[in-house]
Every structure is written in C-alpha cells, then in structure tokens.
Write a structure and sequence with these properties.
Distance between the termini: 33 Å
Protein name: Synaptic vesicle 2-related protein
Strand content: under 5%
Largest sheet: 3 strands, antiparallel
CATH class of the largest domain: Mainly Alpha
Keywords: Cytoplasmic vesicle, Membrane, Synapse, Transmembrane, Transmembrane helix, Transport
Order of helices and strands: HEHEEEHHHHHHHHHHHEHHHHHHHHEE
Structural class: mainly alpha
CATH superfamily of the largest domain: MFS general substrate transporter like domains
Subcellular location: Cytoplasmic vesicle, Secretory vesicle, Synaptic vesicle membrane
Family: Belongs to the major facilitator superfamily.
Number of helices: 21
CATH architecture of the largest domain: Up-down Bundle
Helix content: 55-70%
Shape: globular
Number of domains: 2
Membrane topology: Multi-pass membrane protein
Length: about 550
C-alpha cells in the first residue's frame, strides 16, 4: 500500500489547455475547478499546450472529472469528419436559401415585362416573400426550441421545396403572389440550420466554420445568376424556378442523416439520446468520449420570448433586432438596386431619365440583357472576398467591431454613389458595398447564436431573423418605388440606416469572441457559474456546472 502511495505521489497531474484559450478567472482558481486534492499527494498541475483543433489524448480525456457537459464533450472530441459532413449539408440549405432570394431580382423585371405589371405590384411580389419569412421566423424558432432543431429544419425545408416547385406553375399574378408568400414562410425556418450547426462545433472552430458556411450562400447567388443566363433566354422563368429548387431537394433527401442537437436532447431530459449522438460523433472523428456522467448546468423553460428581455439580454436583443433589420434592409436593397442601376446604365442621368418617362414609367419595362447578367454576376462574386475579409478580421477585431466596420464601409460607398459616376465605377462601388454588407450579415450569424444560451438560442436567432425580414419587406418599396421619385433620397436612406447600425454594433454590451456557447442564462457575461467545491472524506473537488 505504501509503495502504491509513493508511486502516486511521483505521477505528474496534467492539465490540458488549448493554445489561445482564455485563462480562468481568479475565482476559478480559488474554487479549485478541475482539481483533486488528496492529502499527501501532490496537487500542482503541469500545463500542456494543445494546438488548435487537437483532441485531448485518450489516456488523459477528462481525467479528473466524473461529470461533463455537452460543451465539454464537443470541445474534447474536436473538429473532424462529422463536422465536415455537417458543413456540406448545412451549406446546401444555405445555398437553396440564397437561390430563392437571388431569384427575386431576376424574376421581378421579367414578370414586369411579361405580365405588364405596375411597379408597386413588382415590389409587392418581392415583399410578399419577406412577409412569409417574417411571419414564420418566430414560429420556426419556437418549433425548434420545443420539438428539436432537426424537426423544425426538416419541416421548413420540405414546405419550401413543395411551394417553390408549385409556384413555377402559377397561371396569373395572384397565384404566384400567394405561392411565393408560402415559399417565404418556409424559408423563415432555414436559419435554424445555423443553430443546429453551431451546437456541434468546438469553440475555436465555430466562427470560422459558420463564416465558411456562408461560402455556400455566395455559391448559391452566383449559381442562380449563371443558371438564369442559360435558362431564361430559352426555357423561361418557370423552369428557372423549378431548377432553383434542386439544392432543397438534395437537402431534403440527405437531412435524415442529421442527428438531433445533443444540447437540445440534454435540455429536454433525454441524456441517453444525447450520449448516443456524442458517441456517434466521437466514433466518426476517431476521438475519445469524455469520462463520467453527462449533466446540464440547470434545467430551464425553453422558447419563452420574455427570456430575451431579461436584464442580462434586454439591450442585446433590441440592438440585435435593429442590426439584423439594417443588414437585410441594406443587403436585399442593394441586390434590387443593382439590377435597376444596370438597366439604366449609370447613376448620372438616372433621375432625369425617370422623370422624363414618368407618365409611362409604371408600365415601361426592359428585359435584362447579357451585359446586365454579366455585371450582376460580377457584383455577386463580391461575396467571396467579403467572406475572406470577415474571416480574417472577426477573430482579430471581435464580432462587434467587425459588424460596425462592415456597416460603415457600406454606408460610405453608398454616399459615393451620389457622385456622378459611370458604369465601371458604379460596378466597383457596388462590388465593395456588397462584399462588406454580406460580411456584416455573416458576422451577425456568428454573434447571435453565441450570445444566447441553449434554452433561447433558436428563439433568439428566429426573432432576429424575423426583424431581418421586416427590413427585407420594406426594402423593395425603397429600391424599386422610391427610386422612381429620387435616386439620391434612396441612397441616403440606405447610407443613414447602416451608419446607425454601425453605432448599434459598437453599443452591444457583450463581446463573444473567444467564448464558448452558453448552456444556461444563469451566468456572468455568458460564462458558466463555477460551483464551489464540495468537501467529502478529505477530498476537495469542484464539479463545473453540476447541481448538488
């Protein structure tokens, strides 16, 4: 026995810390979190650095804890094969969403000419999609919080696929108006894929992965324009609507592979299912599971709007709502303005030309030319450098400053459009504007799931998405209707809105850079409340997040 104790005294106690991981607070050190102190045995910890993405060695995986949370498991398992598959699948959902959005800027001028629609009906055709998205965003968030992320996502995708294909057979304007509104209702649930995706990502990879998923959005917008170039002249807009639903069809087939969120299962009291999901991920990634019992920090009610307005999150929610509103208002406004500007050729004489044809403006129409499609494709490609810039600065400047910078650059470029510029300069300014406003959108998609706890994460993202749809709902009447009265007033509205959004980003009370996803709202600035060590039989132990 004495020999065993002697050998135990000689063994070093190893504490793993990932490179770049923020240190625990002084309170954590006092509470002795993750330490075991046995009388007569050395308790000093030898720090060992792990590179980003490196898994804890199997022999040391969770060596001193008999309990762990989902966050601990996700961090221990790390990023691997499972996350790569999930990235592609989530990307398909985003690609489909992007194509359904991008098609609005192509479909509007086509139906304007083919059905001789007045400008307000063209704007309404775009707005009705966002009405559906706005009205359903909170609903999908509630469904995801109450019945599971996977359930809400599957229903929304199948809904969008069905009505997306059906809208291609609309015989008259009223039919396509209703069917596109129902498509928008389904699209409102697609952002829940980000919630599901983020909850399977380790902290160090989360921001980069969510931003890289946005590459699929850019691919979707580019693919839609390329598809329009080949389909519109020969087959027409009906076939464009059908072919645009292909990514949705692929996702609907493959989404049955998706597991339910382990965080959601634990919150629902289904620990066995959560453990099975985590074991499946660990097996696919070839990494060890943490040892011990899976626990939750605190059981909470889920999906309550009032939780978004607790003292801790009240200002965050209100400011995020305005930020998301401004993002969608400006992004989709720019998409619609791009086709309007390219049809006119330049900004210089746009206002005077519109006044000259004011009497017949509502029924005058111009089809998009090959040159228009090429310039539209060029500005759409700007989303790729926008992603790269955001990817580079978001972990350097932080989420808040990244959003603020994106809004400010868009606002500045919008003001430059007030100067008399030709088509080439116009294309460059639209390119830069779209790159940064899409980057701001991506930063908001990173920040929002990080700032809310698991209990309200889907609802928080859903309500923010709903406010984004309000902005997208209003923007067609600015970019298509107000534009006929004043080009300059239209640009000032967009520039001013983004300037205010930049200020709102700076005033957000919580910065989520370098922070894990919250399991519970009962934390100080989103960190787990560290439990005090319990004392039992001469053994001092702290179980992080456990409930005694």
């Amino acid at each position: 026995m004495e020999d065993d104790v002697f050998q135990l005294r000689q063994l070093p106690v190893v504490k793993f810390r990932r490179t770049g991981e923020s240190s625990r607070s002084d309170d954590d050190a006092i509470s002795g979190e993750h330490e075991i102190q046995i009388e007569g045995v050395r308790s000093d910890l030898e720090a060992v650095e792990l590179e980003d993405g490196a898994a804890v060695p199997k022999e040391f995986a969770n060596p001193t804890d008999d309990t762990f949370m989902v966050e601990d498991a996700v961090e221990a398992i790390g990023f691997g094969k499972f996350q790569w598959k999930l990235s592609v699948l989530t990307g398909l959902a985003w690609m489909a969403d992007a194509m359904e959005m991008m098609i609005l800027s192509i479909l509007a001028p086509q139906l304007h000419c083919e059905w001789r629609l007045p400008s307000w009906q063209v704007a309404l055709l775009t707005s009705v999609v966002f009405v559906g998205m706005m009205s359903s965003s909170t609903l999908w968030g509630n469904i995801s919080d109450q019945y599971g992320r996977k359930t809400g996502l599957k229903i929304s995708v199948l809904w969008t696929l069905y009505y997306g294909i059906l809208s291609a057979f609309a015989p008259v304007y009223s039919w396509i108006l209703v069917l596109r509104g129902l498509v928008g209702f389904g699209i409102g649930g697609v952002p829940q894929s980000v919630t599901l995706y983020a909850e399977f990502l380790p902290m160090k990879a989360r921001a980069k992965c969510i931003l890289l998923i946005e590459v699929f959005w850019a691919i979707g917008t580019v693919f839609e324009v390329v598809l329009a170039v080949f389909v519109m002249p020969s087959l027409g807009w009906r076939w464009l609507l059908i072919l645009s639903a292909v990514p949705l069809l692929l996702f609907a087939i493959l989404c049955f592979w998706l597991p339910e969120s382990a965080r959601y299962d634990v919150l629902s009291g289904n620990q066995e299912k959560a453990i099975a999901t985590l074991k499946r991920i660990a097996t696919e990634n070839g990494a060890p599971m943490p040892l011990g019992k899976l626990i939750i920090s605190r059981q909470e009610d889920r999906g309550k709007i009032r939780d978004l307005f607790t003292p801790q999150f009240r200002w965050t929610t209100l400011l995020l709502w305005f930020i998301w509103f401004s993002n969608a208002f400006s992004y989709y406004g720019l998409v619609l303005l791009t086709t309007e500007f390219f049809q006119e050729g330049d900004v210089c004489n746009m206002s005077s030309r519109r006044k000259a044809v004011k009497a017949k403006c509502s029924l005058a129409c111009e089809y998009l030319t090959e040159e228009d499609y090429m310039d539209l494709l060029l500005t759409t490609l700007s989303e790729f450098p926008g992603i790269l810039v955001t990817l580079w600065i978001i972990d350097r400047l932080g989420r808040k400053k990244t959003m603020a910078l994106s809004f400010f650059v868009f606002s500045f470029c919008s003001l430059l459009l007030l100067i008399c510029v030709g088509r080439s300069v116009l294309t460059v300014l639209l390119f830069i504007s779209r790159a940064f406003i899409s980057g701001g959108f991506q930063a908001a998609y990173v920040y929002t799931p990080e700032v809310y706890p698991t209990a309200t994460r889907a609802l928080g993202l859903g309500t923010c998405s709903g406010m984004a749809r309000v902005g997208a709902l209003i923007t067609p009447f600015i970019a298509q209707v107000m534009l006929e009265s004043s080009v300059y007033l239209t640009l000032v509205v967009y520039s001013g809105c983004c300037l205010l959004a930049a200020l709102a980003s700076c005033f957000l009370p919580i910065e989520t850079k370098g922070r894990g996803l919250q399991e519970s709202s009962h934390r100080e600035w989103g960190q787990e409340m560290v439990g005090k060590g319990s004392h039992n039989l001469g053994v001092t132990r702290s179980n992080s997040g456990s409930q005694e």
